[in-house]
Amino acid sequence: MLAAGELTNIEQTLATIDTASEPCLTLRQTFPHLAWICCEASDMTQSPFRRVGQFDLHLLDSGGQCAQITDDPQRANGIVLAKRSGNS
């Protein structure tokens, strides 16, 4: 489960990351207790939970047998970080 205020911290961290660097690596190091999946936004069919700069944030619930995207921060234990292309 995402702790109170953690999404805000993630958004603030993401807003300060140079997109040419390794944003997923930085986020994994900053929030090691969360599962992180990084991909291109075109790989995702679901609407994002939030958008920050060039990135879409999808909440990941991997508590059951199968991981799934959720809109419930109380169930989320990970983030899918999907980078949008420059013209998205």
Share in helix: 10-25%
Q: How many helical elements?
A: 2
Query: What is the makeup of the main sheet?
Result: 5 strands, mixed
Instruction: Spell out the helices and strands N to C.
Output: HHEEEEE
Describe the structure.
The protein has helices at 6-16, 23-30; strands at residues 35-40, 50-52, 55-61, 68-70, 78-83. With 88 residues, it is an alpha+beta fold. Strands 1, 2, 3, 4 and 5 form a 5-stranded mixed sheet that branches. A hairpin with a 2-residue loop joins strand 2 (50-52) and strand 3 (55-61). The radius of gyration is 12 Å and the shape is globular. The model has no long low-confidence stretch (mean pLDDT 90).
